[in-house]
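Cast an eye over this sequence plus tokens and walk me through the fold:

***
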Amino acid sequence: MSIVDYSVLKNEDHGAEPPFKSDESGLHGDADFPIAVYNADVTNNFVSWHWHEELEFGFVTEGSVLIECGKNKHILNTGDIYFVNANTLHALFRSGSGAKSVFRSIVVHGSVVGGKEDSIYHQKYVSPITDSSGLRELIFTPKDSGYSKIFGRLTNIWDSENIKIPDHELIVRNELSELFRILIHISEKNMPANPAASIAQEARLREILLFIHDHYAEKITLEDMASAAFVSKSEVLRCFKNIMEQSPFEYLKNYRLRNAAYMIQNTADSINTICGLCGFDDHSYFSKAFKAAYGCSPRDFRK
């Protein structure tokens, strides 16, 4: 299994697999029109934990997909729609044993609809969404009221932006404006806010993940992680347990293994070199852990 990184996926290109990153801080689309559409096949891949300033809309086109947003988990079947708000920690995986798990997504900055932050459009229609602590993610199924309108607008945006039809910017902005209007209406329905403690933990976790991804090739201690987020060691453990449902060192090991798998597939470096580059100082342990994760040895994986 390998990873899908939105920062290099371009429209229908879902075969590219770059080094793993968790924060999508790179630009989606162009600076003057920050929107991008992706077709992601997670049958044998996954989009691991990440976040970004942009809002994300998506819908499953084949099979079923598991989306995790912080502590929440949702299984999406073909046709189901998801929305993930700005800066929300999330991940997408294959769900079930079906032949395929494919989804299409639209990652768009709020400025496409709102323009500058001091504009009435941003203040009235974008900020209430992106600043809402209660609006983290939404799931829509064909049984839900308004589903057809939402699905129609999303497919129109995806198709228009994917093939860059004439005047696609106007078409996309118009459809997005209607989607934002729907989201505003939903957010006004007395949606309960997430507990402040949960939001704070997610923010701390993002800092810890950034530290891990910058230093995974080095020796990392629990104290190092705590210092990176200015919290106690016990709080690091709580953040991972409450949101990731695993220990920080289990996450670190899996992160190192994912990077190793990428390097084995995409570089000519020796297995021993990759072992060291990915933070493993025991070749025997690395081979054993890799086989447990991928079902074969590193050398067989390369073959």
About this structure: Residues 1-25 have pLDDT under 50 and may be disordered. The chain has eleven helices and nine strands. The beta strands are 2-3, 35-41, 45-50, 55-69, 72-77, 81-84, 90-94, 101-108, 137-140.
